Amino acid sequence: MTSRRDFIIQSGSIAVGTALFPSCLNTSKKVDDHGLQLYTFRDQMANDAIGTLKQIAEIGIKQIESARSAKGHYYGLKSTEMRDVCADLGMTLRSGHVHLDDNFQQTMDEAAEAGQEYLVCSSMPTNGQTVDNYLATAEAFNKAGEDCKKMGLKFGYHNHEYEFESENGQVLYDVLLDNTQGDLVHWELDLGWVIVAGKDPLDYFKKYQGRFPLWHLKDMNMTEKVSTEFGKGGLDIVAMLNNREQSGVKYIFIEQEEYASTPLESMSFNVAYLNRLEL
């Protein structure tokens, strides 16, 4: 069976036109400091990291979040080289997706060298959809948060949809939030996976105010359960952005894992969409 991350939408090229945007959009205001999760360009980064970063900068991206790859956390570049290349292009390496594993000290060392602010565990480090497992994971997250804080870093966690499953009436994601310290564990809410799980991000903004300094802004095709270009899926992007203060968000990273055509066309479309929002 094809995985969600590997599924490629076979559809036509993207037409970037005003007819595709909702009536609340206007060119009079722009959303500045667009962020991007580099998993969106995973194949391109693996083949030509610097050339791909140049393309990303050209479409107006200002904030970068890296992702672990077969070539390491920086796609074959040294941590300081990744930092400097981004800076030369007018971008800032803010965060990176990593594993919480036996090499975590090296991961922290690299992130400190790169000048990152956040290290984000990209998926559950242990198996088992049980409250007990999530309690143990929360303890591990608090410890990782302490270790990161000592090095001037902030530790975070990025959700998928499975964390919103329940055991005995307890939502497992809530178990993590309720049992981690707010000054040690910082949450990156992937808005797309939240709605796929049948939850409303706004409920989490209200219940856990200020706990989500990072977002993945990701629209989702709710039929196929795969990501799509902004405005084509089930995420109410305007509502999300109108409530960003309540969430405590500092950096919003666009992520798209499947594309109608190419990652560059999809990201160009998404940036244009955000630039046309009047909020």
Name the descriptors:
279 residues, alpha/beta, TIM Barrel, 8-stranded parallel β-barrel, two-stranded antiparallel ribbon, 11 helices, 18% strand, globular, disordered N terminus
Explain the overall architecture.
The protein has 279 residues and is an alpha/beta fold. It has one domain: Alpha-Beta Barrel (TIM Barrel), CATH 3.20.20. Helices cover 36% and strands 18% of the residues. Strands 1-2-3-4-5-8-9-12 form an eight-stranded parallel β-barrel, surrounded by five helices. The model is unreliable at 1-31 (pLDDT under 50).
Helix and strand arrangement:
Blueprint: E1 34-37, H1 42-47, H2 49-58, E2 61-67, H3 79-88, E3 92-98, H4 104-114, E4 118-121, H5 131-150, E5 154-158, E6 166-167, E7 170-171, H6 172-178, E8 185-190, H7 191-196, H8 201-207, E9 214-217, E10 219-221, E11 226-228, H9 237-242, H10 244-247, E12 251-254, H11 263-275
Parallel strand pairs: 1-2, 1-12, 2-3, 3-4, 4-5, 5-8, 8-9, 9-12
Antiparallel strand pairs: 6-7, 10-11
CATH architecture: Alpha-Beta Barrel
Q: How many structural domains in the coordinates?
A: 1
Element order: H for helix, E for strand: EHHEHEHEHEEEHEHHEEEHHEH
Tell me the strand percentage band.
15-25%
Mean pLDDT, all residues: 90
List unreliable stretches of 5+ residues: 1-31
For the CA atoms, what is the radius of gyration? 18 Å
Order of strands, widest sheet: 1-2-3-4-5-8-9-12
> Roughly what percent helix?
25-40%
Distance between the termini: 41 Å
Structural class given helices, strands, pairing?
A: alpha/beta
User: What characteristic shape results from the CA principal axes?
Assistant: globular
Number of E-type strands:
12
Largest sheet, if any? 8 strands, parallel, barrel
CATH-assigned homologous superfamily: Divalent-metal-dependent TIM barrel enzymes
